[in-house]
Design a protein that fits this description.
single chain, 336 residues, Pseudouridine synthase
Length: 336
């Protein structure tokens, strides 16, 4: 067993999954929530380890410890997976919204396992949102130290020059908050609006809107087009597309895989099928002399005639119905 260290949690993602680890990290790795939310759950008394309710997140668990959240055992470790999602404008990036607004997670496909978002997008922001079943990976990709560039296309009301946008490359302070270097390129003017390509590595809360507001621009549309090596591309609004395991490993690289504790050897979660129903009970056999429904079809020659041809002509002319020949027999057969 590895000795415990005093390193910050953000630097301990790479510890072996077979060693002891902080309880919040264990819960996040299971894909239930983020580590911060796990700490809140613990403080709310929702987490039990080996039959004892935890009072503090400062607790280490071993692989053999029994962990329960809200009375349910912690899910088994699953293979690390990542999805690209084209978020629509008007959705909040949260599992529940007290104001009753539509959420990203309420509109995902039903066969998707429990997933977390890598960071958040504002309600009016659309475009690429990464989803993963691995809380450790979500946390690692959110950290500014990862250095992944996040690109946006911005439509804003107002006028600006490329020279003023170039000044953002040295960073800018807005209302006492310092924002790091930003790459901004003026694409075109469209009436009273301008389109700008905006790229940054930090991704602080409402950073694009606050920075452009400081330049006298009012953002009226914001689309994230890439997050690190992952691109929005031709992904349709609302669509979810999984990144292949081999591609994900290549794009993360060894350093990030170790830092996040990603596991590509664990089994895949088996998705529940939408139309999956319990097997029907076998039908009881009826009486042996039960009439086969197919036998109700009258395929025998007309008894009142010399051949089937007469019966057919009688039916076509209506005579068979008046005489009660073939028609009478068919009616009796139907009543059976």
């Amino acid at each position: 067993m590895k000795a415990r260290t005093n390193r910050p949690a953000s630097e301990t993602f790479g510890e072996d999954e077979e060693t002891s680890q902080r309880i919040a990290k264990r819960i996040a790795r299971a894909g239930l929530c983020s580590r911060r939310d796990a700490e809140r759950w613990i403080e709310a008394g929702r987490v039990v380890v080996n039959g004892k309710k935890l009072q503090t997140p400062a607790f280490t668990v071993k692989p053999s410890d029994k962990v329960e959240v809200d009375g349910k055992p912690l899910p088994a470790l699953e293979r690390t997976r990542l999805w690209l999602h084209h978020k629509r404008s008007g959705q909040v990036t949260t599992s529940r919204d007290p104001e009753g607004r539509p959420t990203v997670f309420s509109r995902l496909p039903e066969d998707l396992p429990r997933v977390l978002s890598v960071g958040r997008l504002d309600i009016n922001t659309e475009g690429l949102l990464l989803l993963t079943n691995d809380g450790g990976l979500a946390r690692a990709l959110e950290l500014p130290s990862t250095g992944w560039l996040r690109r946006y296309r911005v439509r804003a009301h107002g006028s600006i020059t490329q020279e003023r946008l170039d000044g953002l490359s040295e960073g800018i302070a807005v209302d006492g908050v310092l924002y790091g270097a930003i790459e901004a390129q003026l694409e075109r003017e469209q009436g009273t609006n301008v389109w700008i390509t905006f790229a940054m590595r930090e991704g602080k809360n409402r950073e694009v809107k606050k920075v452009l507001a400081a330049l006298d621009l009012e953002v009226n549309r914001l689309i994230r087009i890439s997050y690190g090596p992952f691109q929005l591309g031709d992904l349709a609004r609302g669509e979810v597309r999984e990144v292949r395991g081999r591609t994900l490993r290549d794009q993360l690289g060894e350093k990030l895989i170790v830092a996040s504790g990603a596991n590509f050897d664990a089994p895949l979660a088996k998705p529940a099928k939408k139309d999956e129903k319990p097997s029907p009970k076998p039908k009881k056999r009826g009486p042996k002399n039960k009439v086969d429904p197919l036998s109700r079809l009258d395929t025998k020659p007309n008894r009142s005639g010399t051949n089937a041809e007469k019966g057919d002509s009688g039916k076509r002319s209506g005579k068979g119905r008046r005489r009660g020949g073939n028609q009478g027999k068919s009616g009796a057969d139907r009543r059976r």
